[in-house]
Amino acid sequence: MSMKNSEAIRLWMAMEIGPYWIGRDDEDPLSPAAIAQDESEQRSQEVTQVSLSTQPKQATVSAKVAQVPQEQIPQTPQRVQFTPTQRVTTPPSATVKRIDASAPAKEPDSETIARIHTANWQELGSMVASCQLCPTLVQNRLSTVFGTAEPTARMVIVGEAPGRDEDLQGKPFVGKSGELLENILRACGLKRGSDVAIINVLKCRPPNNRDPQDDEIRACSHFLRRQLEILNPTVIVLASRFAAQKLLNTELSTGKLRGSVHKVEIAGRSVPAVVTYHPSYLLRSPVAKNDAWRDFCAAKDLLVQSA
User: Dihedral (C-alpha) 244, 250, 252, 256: value to the nearest 10 degrees?
Assistant: First the structure.
């Protein structure tokens, strides 16, 4: 890793602010692409240093090697380099399909949509794990982030998309934003998993934590809808602008949508929904935590009223 990124990471750790303070338009030094580039630069520097240090002795070494029988010269094993996105090895006999990362996302075909609409939770998770609909996301992801839920959960939180920590762990809302969310839920007397299911609009991390694009949201919308149908929640918390705009079919901002009870249609049933800020936004704007607390209290009241 280069000196610039190393110093940046140490600075984050010292200030205990983490990568959530990086602007969406800034380059994320902890992204898979950045890490791969830094490692490549470091290996190039190491090779150059070794080459310079051994150059004067090249003739002597070559002469000695020439005197040794070929069968006695140990063969150096070839190093295999893996990029951060290569988490699963492909059998030699398998056919590897090249991905055009510049291609736009596409919606699933009619056969896949029919499978999605009849899949159970486990089957749907397997379909998400093998999804290839968004070439840019597939090329950059380390893992898919399907969601966490238990059959007893009656509240569903819908976030935006996985971030760096979520991509690494394969779970939604981890890291500092996850800690903040769990603190809020605990203060409301709710427990992640048994009381509250957590899913995202997108199941893969956008490169450098950029905003989800319209074609990606459309491609992933069938998975999102089926998740909500299976979970059959009593209350929904829309914890991001993209979740609110997608499920409420509106262009209004989070600030204008919060403070009211909305309705989300799920399998012909109207489910009350509350809009609030994403936990990562609360880390950047602590003044908004009071508003978010009121939003979660309102969602908890709706949950109690429906019991």
Answer: -60
What's the Cα-to-Cα distance from 138 to each of 84, 105, 293, rounded to whole Å? 13, 10, 35
What does the alpha-carbon distance between residue 140 and residue 163 come to, in Å, rounded to a whole number?
12
Judged by DSSP in three states, 206 sits in coil
Helices 214-231 + 110-118 axis angle, to 10: 30
Q: Contacts for 185-188 with beta carbons within 8 Å, 24 or more apart?
A: 185/296, 187/293, 188/296, 188/297, 188/300
For residue 167, count CB atoms less than 10 angstroms from its CB and return exposed for 0-12, middle for 13-18, buried for 19 or more. buried
SS3 category, 220: helix
For the chain, give the number of residues: 307
What pLDDT, in 10s, does the model give residues 262-299?
A: 999 999 999 999 999 999 999 999 999 999 999 999 99
156 in Cβ contact with 196 (< 8 Å):
yes
Residue 157: its pLDDT value, please?
98
Tokens for 64? 């000695």
**How is residue 192 annotated by DSSP?**
B
Taking 3-state DSSP, the helix, strand and coil percentages for the chain, each rounded to the nearest 5, stand at 50, 10, 40
To which H or E segment does residue 27 belong? none
Average pLDDT over residues 62-72: 46
Given this model, what pLDDT does residue 36 score? 57
All domains in the chain, ordered by first residue: 1-42 (no CATH), 110-305 (3.40.470.10)
Helices and strands in the chain, H and E counts: 13, 5
Q: How far apart are CA 92 and CA 82, in angstroms?
A: 16
Burial of 277 (0-12, 13-18, 19+ CB in 10 A): buried
DSSP string spanning 59-120? HHHHHHHHHS-GGGSPPPPPPPP--TT--SPPPTTSPPPP--TTSPP-PPPHHHHHHHHH--
Q: Give the pLDDT confidence of 186-234 residue by residue, as tens digits.
A: 999 999 999 999 999 999 999 999 999 999 999 999 999 999 999 999 9
